[in-house]
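note to self — DONT lose this again. spent like an hour looking for the file last time. sequence + predicted structure for the chain T wanted, 113 res
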Amino acid sequence: MPHHLSALLFDLGDTIMIEESEVKDSEETTLQADLIPGMAEALRRFKAQGLRLAIVADSRPDTPPNVLRQHGLYGYLTCWRSRRSSASVNLIHTSFEWHWMQWALQSATIGVS
């Protein structure tokens, strides 16, 4: 069955991992965290179906790999990271996530329609 999606993009905190469960180092990098129940299996199924998966997060650079490795998901998702905030890219806060996702798609040469 052909896919009509170019990619599935996820935030990390409270989308893949439970932020309240994070264990951080002195530099605020997350060393480990629990996942949202069912998320690991969902990501594995998406990947098995041939979907491209990515995390778009404003976390510390090592946070996504640390959490993904902990749960055997490293390599399942491409990670785009930024320390930018909505103010620094001059976007209205409520639309920031959508614009950030568009940027990630375009930078991956996936395109947005």
